[in-house]
Amino acid sequence: MSAELVHATGRLVNRAVDQVLLGDARVGSAAEGKRLLEGSEQNEALADDIQRVIVLSLPVIRSLARGAKLVKLPWVILATSALSVGVAVRSGVREIQVISSLLAHHIEEDTGAPADPDLVKKLAVDLYLHPRRKLELRDDKLRLVRLSRKWALGGVFGRKTERRAAKALTAAERVDAKAVAARWAEIRRSRSG
Known about the structure:
Order of helices and strands: HHHHHHHH
Oligomer: single chain
Mean pLDDT: 85
Radius of gyration: 17 Å
Strand content: under 5%
Number of domains: 1
Shape: globular
C-alpha cells in the first residue's frame, strides 16, 4: 500500500464521519442501521475523495495482475477492476458512516455529552475491520493501511461486505459507551499531561 493511498483513505474516513457527526440525524439501533444500509443513498459530498482512493488503488490492481502472471493488463480488466474498487469504497464509506452514527448516538445518550470525533472514528473503523475483536483504545497506526487494503482487494475480488457491516453494527450496539468514553478521556488526559 502506498502512503498516498493510506493518507487518502484516512482523509475520506475523517470527512465521512465528520459529516455524520455534524448532522442531526443518528442511527438509534443496529436494526435501523441495517435498514439504512439496504437503501442506496449516494454521498455526493465525498465523491472527490472516493475518486481519489479509487485512482490510488490502481497500482494495487496492476501489482495483483503482475503476480497473476499477466504481462500486459488489458484496459478492460483495469477498468472493471477500478469500477469494482469504486463500489467497495462507496459501500465501505456508507457502512462506516452508519456505524459511526450508531456509536455517536450511544455515546451521546450514555454520557449526555457530544461524542468525541476521534473516538467515534477509531471505534467505527476498528469495528468495521474486526467486528468480533475486543475493542482496544490504543493508537493503532496500521488500521488505515488495513482499511485501504480491504477496500482495494475486496473490490478487485468482488467481496461483499454486508454481513461484516451487520456484525459491526451489532457489535457497536453492545459497546459500553459510557465506559469507553471515560477510558478515552483518561487516555487523552494522560497524553496531554
